[in-house]
Design a protein that fits this description.
Blueprint lengths: L6 H12 L4 H38 L1 H7 L1 H28 L18 H13 L2 H10 L11 H33 L5 H23 L4
Helix pairs in contact: 1-7, 2-5, 2-6, 2-7, 2-8, 3-6, 4-8
Length: 216
């Protein structure tokens, strides 16, 4: 379809990659635990939107430019690492203060609960500011496009859409599972919320370091 081949293998590869622990899973699970299913869905959709930008960039050749330019890669990489570290520090502050407020909103006089739009935007940025996602599309998608395909750009977009749909469905399933865990621990109170924020802070700090150390 659209000049692609081995679509079943592409779908299987995407599912394996989606199930690999990383920023997307961590952010979605964290927001679900903090704000319930609606927060988790907003996070998942934001991540998928960021992934869509990378897919379009790969189709238009912008990912190739990122792969060729060391400066562009480093700039986006450090911006992404700094953003993840900011999220980690905010979570750590909430865990230390013992407040039940969302870690991304620890600012004087700010609203205790972030809007779904803010959760969506944060998920979007965690994906958009990761240059490894762009390089992933650039490396993976051509392997499933026939050499004689007449519309390679269309094939890129089609495979990108398939990957995004599958990834979104996986994250929504993760939200459902995490929501069950949230309900099961609903009576644990503030101590559990502090522990979740502390664990999230450590996880996002580690992911920030890993991204900062990433090579092209």
């Amino acid at each position: 379809m659209f000049g692609t081949e081995n679509l079943w293998l592409f779908v299987l590869t995407g599912l394996v990659l989606n199930a690999t622990p990383g920023v997307d899973m961590a952010y979605t699970a964290t927001r679900t635990l903090q704000h319930g299913a609606r927060g988790g869905v907003a996070a998942a959709l934001g991540i998928s939107a960021g992934c869509a930008v990378h897919a379009v960039a790969a189709a238009l050749g912008l990912a190739a430019l990122l792969a060729a330019s060391a400066w562009a890669f480093e700039a986006i990489k450090w911006a992404g690492a700094a953003y993840l570290l900011w999220l980690a520090l905010a979570m750590a502050r909430t865990a230390a203060s013992g407040s039940a407020r969302d870690a991304t909103e620890v600012r004087g006089g700010s609203s205790p609960v972030p809007t779904l739009q803010r959760i969506f935007l944060q998920g979007f940025l965690t994906n958009l500011l990761n240059p490894k996602v762009a390089l992933f599309f650039l490396a993976l998608l051509p392997q499933f496009i026939r050499a004689d395909a007449g519309q390679k750009t269309l094939a890129f977009l089609f495979l990108g859409a398939v990957f995004i749909v599958n990834g979104t469905l996986f994250l929504l399933a993760l939200v459902a599972v995490t929501q069950r865990l949230r309900r099961a621990t609903a009576g644990a109170g503030d101590r559990l919320r502090r522990a979740l924020n502390a664990a999230g802070a450590a996880l996002f700090a580690g992911l920030a370091v890993r991204l900062a150390l990433a090579e092209r």
